[in-house]
Every structure is written in structure tokens, then in C-alpha cells.
From TrEMBL:
Keywords: Disulfide bond, Redox-active center. Has a glutathione-disulfide oxidoreductase activity in the presence of NADPH and glutathione reductase. Reduces low molecular weight disulfides and proteins. PANTHER family: GLUTAREDOXIN (PTHR34386), GLUTAREDOXIN-LIKE PROTEIN NRDH (PTHR34386:SF1). One of its GO terms (molecular function) is electron transfer activity. The lineage of its organism: Eukaryota, Metazoa, Ecdysozoa, Arthropoda, Crustacea. GO terms for biological process: cell redox homeostasis. Transmembrane segments: none annotated. Residues 8-67 form the Glutaredoxin domain. It comes from Cherax quadricarinatus (Australian red claw crayfish). This is Glutaredoxin domain-containing protein. SUPFAM superfamilies: Thioredoxin-like. It comes from the Eukaryota.
């Protein structure tokens, strides 16, 4: 684990694939972080939206430096210079105590808040997958007498669908 004086905060919601990916990246790189589940802390939700102007998660901070979401984190990790600056910041500088909100566990709420406005980062391919499912070309394929694979299509069917529905030319 990386030795740090500062801190990394990851504001998340439970079961968000982008939040999980961001936390996995940080964990794999040995960067310690604090996970703040915003659905359990209403005050944090409103503060975070005001601070970042975003209603998607994850929202990641290295000390007071706002990184953004998982997509931004993945880009920065690949940029050695930018990544080095963030790591150097948390290794050499302590975080300002009042710059970011780290709620006390006693402030957590277990109720399902109907006003929760934070959503997982959108996945550009998710809409295409939903359209593909709705198109009706997916079907079950029998592999053998005793096994089958659900919701599949041939490569040719998929390419034809992409060309027709998405106007993609190969």
C-alpha cells in the first residue's frame, strides 16, 4: 500500500459498476482511499452536487484536487505525468480538514430516499445493448442436447443490425 499523508475520497453509490471499477483501479495501484456512499448521507449528496456540478458517481478527489469520475481516473492513470502529480500531492501534502466532507457513520440513513439524484456514470454502450435486446434478434442457442446459451445472435446478424439500425458502415 502506498504511504500517503493526504487522502483520496471516492463518493459512490452501492452496486454502481463505474464506482466499483474506480475503486478496483485505486486498490490495484495500492492507493488507499475513503469510500463515501452518498445514498446513505443526504447532506453529502447536496454538497457534492454543489461542489462538482455533477449528479453522477463516482466523484473522486485527491486531497482537494477534483479528478472527476471513473473515465477521468482511467485517463489520468494512463498519463504518467498527471498521475505522478496526483500521487506526489497525496504523498507530500496533508489534506485540509474542512475542504471535503467525510461524514461520521452516525449520520448515515438507511431509508430509501426518493429524492436521491445521484446516478451511476452513463455507459455509452448500454443504450445500444438495450436497443439490441429490444430488437428481437437475440435468441437462445442450443449448444448440445442438455445445454443452451441465452440471448445470443450470430456475428452476421449483429453486423447487419448495426448497419441497419445505427447506420454504421463496415
Amino acid at each position: 500500500m502506498l504511504e500517503v499523508r493526504g487522502r483520496v475520497l471516492v463518493y459512490t453509490i452501492v452496486s454502481c459498476p463505474h464506482c466499483l471499477a474506480a475503486k478496483k483501479t485505486l486498490k490495484d495501484l495500492g492507493v488507499p482511499f475513503i469510500d463515501v456512499p452518498v445514498e446513505r448521507f443526504p447532506a453529502v449528496r447536496s454538497w457534492l452536487q454543489e461542489k462538482t456540478g455533477k449528479t453522477s458517481v463516482p466523484q473522486i478527489f485527491f486531497n482537494e484536487t477534483y479528478v472527476g469520475g471513473n473515465d477521468n481516473l482511467q485517463k489520468i492513470v494512463k498519463d504518467e505525468e498527471e498521475w505522478g502529480k496526483l500521487i506526489a500531492d497525496i504523498q507530500t501534502n496533508e489534506a485540509k480538514e474542512d475542504a471535503l466532507i467525510i461524514p461520521h457513520p452516525s449520520e448515515a440513513t438507511d431509508r430509501n430516499d426518493a429524492e436521491m439524484k445521484f446516478v451511476c456514470e452513463s455507459d455509452p454502450a448500454a443504450l445500444t445493448v438495450e436497443e439490441l435486446r429490444a430488437s428481437g434478434i437475440l435468441r437462445d442457442h442450443r449448444n448440445s442436447f442438455f445445454s443452451s446459451t441465452k440471448n445470443v445472435c450470430s456475428g452476421q446478424e449483429f453486423i447487419t443490425w448495426l448497419m441497419k439500425e445505427k447506420n454504421i458502415i463496415f
